[in-house]
Amino acid sequence: MVLRSKPADGTHWTVRSAASVTGLSKSTVGRMLALFGVQQHRSKSFKLSTDPLFVDKVKDIVGLDINPPDHAVVLCVDEKTQAQTWERTQPVLPLGLGHLEGVTHDYVTPLFAAHKLPKVRAWLAAGPRFHVHYTPTFASWLNQIERWFALLTERQTRRASCISAFVQTYNARAKPFVWTATSEAILEKVERLCKAVCRTGH
Q1: What residues contact 61, with CB distance under 8 A and at least 6 apart?
Q2: Quick one: residue 101, left, alpha or beta (phi over 0 = left, psi -120 to 50 = alpha)?
Q3: Is-contact 26 15, C-beta < 8 A?
Q4: Is the same domain home to 7 and 101?
Q5: Suppose 93 and one of 102, 122, 166, 178 were both cysteines; which one would form an S-S bond, judging by CB atoms 3.0 to 4.6 Å apart?
């Protein structure tokens, strides 16, 4: 029932609402959901790429990560949007018993797309040693810098603004990220996701 239907008054079943409809106790419903790993109160976001060259770009990017060209350096770069890089306008409310730490949200940068700027294009054209490989549209997760951005957000910018201190500390003990997923494994996973989306009628 929890997986195949929705209550009339909400987007998902709660333990209480499922118990009232099934006649089971709340504790029984809770144990059954936990037994099968069902977390009906949680969701995660996803976005499928609409890039017509998605497959080719996945193979290209993953190929660079797993088997980079001889005598070449592969750099993964991107803009870091939605970063709190200025000092906050109000002090952080400290963590305490019964309440979470509180921070203001003051500064969000727009999506910049620096690689489309004429000056950047001209610079790249003047430097034939540089070859730019683009990730597919809506697939920035293929860019290894996104993993580092996640660390930056988790450990620093979600609560503070001083990026340089984080970078210095991180670089002192940094280890390279190692890409392990093959393009075939990625494309199989995306295919399964597409089939799951198709079954929803969208």
Answers
A1: 133, 135, 142, 143
A2: beta
A3: yes
A4: no
A5: 102
> Which residue range is the domain that position 36 belongs to?
1-43
Helix, strand, or coil (residue 31): helix
52-76 pLDDT tens trace: 999 999 999 999 999 999 988 888 8
Distance from the Cα of residue 136 to its chain's centroid: 15
Long-range own/partner contacts, residues 41-47 (CB < 8 A, 24 or more apart): 41/12, 41/14, 46/193, 47/138
Judgement on whether residues 62 and 33 belong to the same structural domain of the protein: no
Crossing angle for the helix pair 15-22 and 26-35, to the nearest 10 degrees: 110
Cβ neighbours for 51, distance < 8 A, ≥ 6 positions apart: 57, 136, 137, 138, 139
Judgement on whether residues 82 and 179 belong to the same structural domain of the protein: yes
The answer to whether position 124 is within a domain reads: yes
What does each C-alpha distance from 61 to 11, 75, 135 come to in angstroms? 38, 11, 7
Longest dimension (CA), the chain: 72
Domain match, 132 and 79 both: yes
Stronger pLDDT, 198 or 188, i.e. the higher one: 188
**105-123 tens-digit pLDDT:** 554 544 456 777 888 889 8
With the C-alpha atoms ordered 78, 156, 110, 42, is the resulting torsion angle positive or negative? positive
